[in-house]
Amino acid sequence: MEYRIGLLRGDGIGPEIVDSAVRVLEKIGEKYGHRFVFAPYLIGGAALDATGEPLPPETVAGCLASDSVLLGAVGGPKWDDLPGDRRPEKALLGIRSAMQLYTNLRPARLYPALRGECPLRPDIVQDGFDLLIVRELTGGIYFGDRGYRTGKYGEEAYDTECYSRTEIARIAHAAFRAAERRRGRVTSIDKANVLETSRLWRRTVHEIAGEYPEVTCTDMLVDNAAMQLVRNPSQFDVIVTSNMFGDILSDEASQITGSIGMLPSASLGDGTRGLYEPIHGSAPDIAGQNLANPIATVLSAAMMLRYSFSLTAEADAIEAAVDAVLSAGFRTADLLHGRPGALGTVEMTDRILAAL
Ligand code: IPM
Ligand code: MG
Prior knowledge:
This protein is α/β, with parallel strands linked by helices.
């Protein structure tokens, strides 16, 4: 089979980690007899510098013409002072929205080999944890009405959170379907003691829950969830939550796996075309120095094989290779917390390729 993969390398460490994932995909292609055709497009600061726009129309068209898309990261200090609608981050929100990818899957699990890198006390993580954050990705406050106006105290800025029943229902379905294939538990996270959008969220999630009798559904307030994630992460199976809460909680979940450099993500809509990216950012401070952990992006490529192309054995092989490399004790700098012996981005990728 031939697959056309759009590549959005982006900024900072984006190019390095995407290139690692490309090497892994090429090896998988050789081994299993697939042809991956890579089509690069500009996004973020790189696109701003080259074209004056963070998300050029050719990029959107190219992604929509691809079977799936792999993205590195966007943003950096060079573009931090641009107005909100011209920032690199706007391109990321824009491409997710243009591809109608409302479901963002962010799995976080503790690899037994990384137990020592987890910042939580050993007794807290003795049973490990394996959770999936299902983040709503194209609605809520990141897409709501925003701006400046004059208020009681003079100049003020505002952002608004808005969720329709339709948007909540479709992300709830995605979460319940995922839970059916996992351990059958959904925790819906909101702030229903304060926010009206959260009250609609809670009501809608419970209506949908009725269609999944095999899945148990409980609610948790977001402040409590932030605490529970570090108090007892193994209580969670599937977490479903809004765009902003999912953004915040997924960074927290990543850190308890040992490093934010470990977490992949899949963004999906109604079809099979997806956008796959690590949950971390462009890390401009370590860009271009062969220091970045490529694992989150390599695992994102595995998710692409699994969810967009239904290449289960191939996805399993990548995940097993990452497992083997970590079990053998290989680490990038982010996983060593200052201890010596780190592999660079390229060397870690070489190890993963060797394990394949
Ligand atoms: C993420 C990032 C993005 C987001 C930013 C860069 C716009 O934090 O993918 O989690 O908020 O979604
Ligand atoms: Mg984030």
